[in-house]
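Quick one: structure for this chain?
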Amino acid sequence: MPERQSSRKDAIRNREAVLAAADTLFSRRESPEDVTMADVAAAAGVGKGTLFRAFGDRAGLLRALYEARLEPIRQAVETGPPPLGPATPPHDRVPALLDAVLCFKLDNRRLALALEEDGSSSPYRAEHYERWHSLLRAVLEQIPGLTDSDFTAHALLAATRADLVEHLAGEERMTREGMRAQLANFVTRVLASGPPRGLTAEE
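Got it. Here's what it folds into:
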């Protein structure tokens, strides 16, 4: 029994060391592709076998690091006060949720870009994307007169894609506050508009 507890503590300690090392490496490297599993293992002081057993592959490591950084936002969304928490009126909560996504990706540009580019399948099937989409769709469904909440949630999240954020922050040199203001204006227009005249969701 003591050996099992010791092994579990070692596994937890190794996992924390790996996440900390990966966090540092992704923050310092110019390109996410520059960070390899071997780099992370060396920085964490563990063998590559330990790394692969704990996370499966590079995508698994990226997801774990992403989720660890996202945890404070998730708690705020699930149980926190307004403007992110569940008691917030939907017209206020939708822009607040999207602003939180944008700020998170601005604060974690390289990691977010690496995760969204590293998936072997469609990025829209990724667990983190499906979770945000499901949440936004549910909140949008609470807004009277707004049709097709499923598509609207996709369209709104498209404005926070990591590659777009990287382009705007990098090549376009748009400021953080500029991006937040533009996104807020866009969301406000979407929520205020109805379906185009002569068109229905089925079309």
